[in-house]
Amino acid sequence: MPPKLAQRLILFLTLVLISVGIISGYLQVRTQESQLLNTIINGADQLSNGITSATWHAMLANNREAAYQIMHTIALRQGIANIRIFNREGRIMFSTDSTVSGVVERSSKECAVCHSTPTPQVNINPPDRSRIFTNDFGKRELAMVTPIYNEPACSNAACHAHPAEVKVLGVLDVTYSLENIDQIVATIQRRAILTTTITVVVIGIFIFFFMRTTVHKPIAKLIAGTRALSAMQLDRPVDINADGEIGELAHSFNSMRVQLMKTVNELNELTQSLETKVQQRTEQLKVMNQKLFQSDRLASLGQLAASVAHEINNPIAGVLNLSMLIERIMKDDGIPQERVEEVRRYLLQISSETTRVGRIVGDLLAFSRRPSPQRMSADLNAIIHRTISIIDHKLKLAGVELELRLDDHLPEIKCDSSQIQQVIVNLVMNASEATHNRGSGKVSVRTAVDADGTMVHLEVKDNGDGIPKENLAKIFDPFFTTKGEGKGVGLGLAVVYGIVESHGGDIEVESKIGEGTTFLVDLPISGEAKEPSPQTSGIS
Predict the structure, then answer these.
(1) Residues 438 and 464: beta-carbon distance below 8 Å
(2) Same domain, 139 and 277
(3) To the nearest 10°, the Cα dihedral for 175, 179, 180, 181?
(4) Per the domain annotation, does 475 fall within a domain?
(5) Rounded to an integer, what distance in angstroms lies between the CA atom of residue 64 and that of residue 61?
(6) How many separate domains does the chain show?
(7) Residue 86 belongs to a domain with what CATH number?
(8) Closest listed residue to residue 393, CA positions, set 353, 428, 438
(9) pLDDT tens, 301-341?
(10) pLDDT tens digit string along 96-121?
(11) Do 306 and 340 sit in the same domain of this protein?
(12) pTM over 0.85
């Protein structure tokens, strides 16, 4: 989880405060150290001048022992590490450290103070004549170089007169220990660190509480307000008593909340109004739909009655005419011998027309009173073989070649065998009748199982004339037929559709004019049925 705004501000301000404290403490320590060193340098210069003044009379009288004794005595003072005297050639003429002797090169640190330029410098400021270094024991020391000038008393002395043009007779090099100064500086550093730490902590605590009060709490309330707003809890205002930008933000947020609540209320009222209107329109549509359904039902009944009346009227009229003919032929003593064959022919026609009426009535009963399927495990291939054996003679009389391509590994399905047999009869006979205009009709029946093993496929294909595109959507409608007059009332495919749907299956048709038609039936192996649709539920 990323840090919050108040936490980031506190962290940023704390880092800035620590940086400022460290820089300020560092500068303060360096300033005090610089002041202490300047004080030490000035004191070292004064002491060096004091040494030269103390030994001036002894050196003027050429009494070196007395001068050296004075320097030995001064060297015993606390803080002085060593006193040396160099002559003009850089030879060490005297040193309080007996182990130090010889000649010092002009390029050394001691001589570089005056000999850093081609012409030796005579008058040099005290800071430039000092140097700070670390001795062999790791302690810092300050060395002050003080020129010993050639005064008139020296150049006029009878014992060891120096030429007047010589400005510097030698150099006094006094080394001071900075151990006390380093201790003082360390104490100053500790105090600076402690002071900086306390300052940072105190100011940090102040910043923490200040930011918590002025930033964190208001922002937390704003966040809670936005979450309540996203949850559509519009009755929860943001209560922030603050000035400046946060106060203005809270005020704007509350104004937005109020406006949004007003808009939502208006939308709710509009939605409620729309729901009421939709409910009213739905009730009206239900009433209208019921009326339309009833009208459609009556229209369907009327169409059925007209179709049945038309289909039954012709054979009944034929039977009536034939009966009247037979009645005229018959005499009081029976049928004349020469007209017996004619009467027999009329009786056969009466039997044929009566059978036709029975077939029409049977189709009508099959459509209107189709029972629920009685499902049992059955072999679809066996049902096909049994059905074909019944209608095979009709196919041969029609000159139709039948091809069976049945899957030998087809699983058994839960179905009503008699209803599935009715489906096969209708599809195969329709396919046979569709090829009557062909010289050699061909009907193919194929079975298979789908990839996931849940459905079996039944395909009935013919090479007939095909079904026009405008009729494809209507072939399963009751009473729709493209056959000629006297060849049915258009209930066969409607019955097929209802049977397939009641078995939980599906049926599709593909057709091309001049190439033929294919009916595809899918039946679930489990036999789980769907609710029949109003279109194929029959007429009660």
Answers:
(1) yes
(2) no
(3) 80
(4) yes
(5) 8
(6) 3
(7) 3.30.450.20
(8) 428
(9) 666 666 667 667 777 888 888 888 888 888 878 888 888 88
(10) 777 667 777 666 666 666 666 666 66
(11) yes
(12) no
